[in-house]
Amino acid sequence: MGEYIFLYIIGFIAILFAVIQDLRTREIANWLTFSLIAFVLAYRAIYSIYSNNFMFFVYGLFGIFLFVGLGYLFYYARVFAGGDAKLLFGLGGIFPYSSLFDYAYYGVGFILLLFTSGVIYTLFYSFFLVRQNYNDFKKSFVNQIKRLKYFFIVSIILAILVFFTRDVYDSVIIINIFAVFVLLSPFLFAYVRAVEKSCMIQLISPDKLTEGDWLERDVYVNGKVIKKNFAGLNFNQILILRKRGKKVMIKTGVPFAPAFLIAFFVLLIILRYSSFKLL
Fold this sequence. Notes:
Blueprint: H1 5-25, H2 30-51, H3 54-76, H4 82-91, H5 100-132, H6 134-147, H7 149-164, H8 172-199, E1 201-204, E2 214-215, E3 219-221, E4 224-226, H9 235-244, E5 248-251, H10 257-273
Antiparallel strand pairs: 1-5, 2-5, 3-4
């Protein structure tokens, strides 16, 4: 399986550049994501010709198609931003497929690793944001707690009910964990909302706007409305705001590319030490 080493190196380099771009500018350039797809397909085509193994190219092409479908699915479900979805496209071509099972194994496996890594990474990243904006976060968190007081009462009642059903089921530990999760869910929701309101909304001057920036609310300019949407601001909308000189409230997101890097490393470790011996 040595022919896949080069593909892993390409994937690692692309993700590394994506992380740098995402942390610096909060976006991943199209040239990077499309270059990844081009390099992957070019390598697979050249190796297929060299080894007289046409399926090596076909398997990679179908892998890209699979991850393109997953990328669009998560984009329109508002899970990924555009750059994250496009980065996923090219990664679909680097895995060692040889059967339909492999497409499910790497497709589902990498997505699960990505979401798990994303949750852990986002949680730690939010701690960094809270530390920088502690006073604002504290006020927002208290306000969220007050707004969710009935949610807390319901969660306490549900947690008690779940806890007393543990004797009915064999999995006592799982029931206890679920009860604790139900009890803590209002705190987690209040924490996420407080981080969003206090740390991730900024008033931005129009000259600093970039395509894809998310509006916090609709903006009225010369009697017209620029509506907030998941796709973010486009070039023409930014020009209108710049001509007007109107500052707008922008919702910043967590740069998600580092989660790709974590998930990619974990997957390589699994492949290295699994029974598949793919590395």
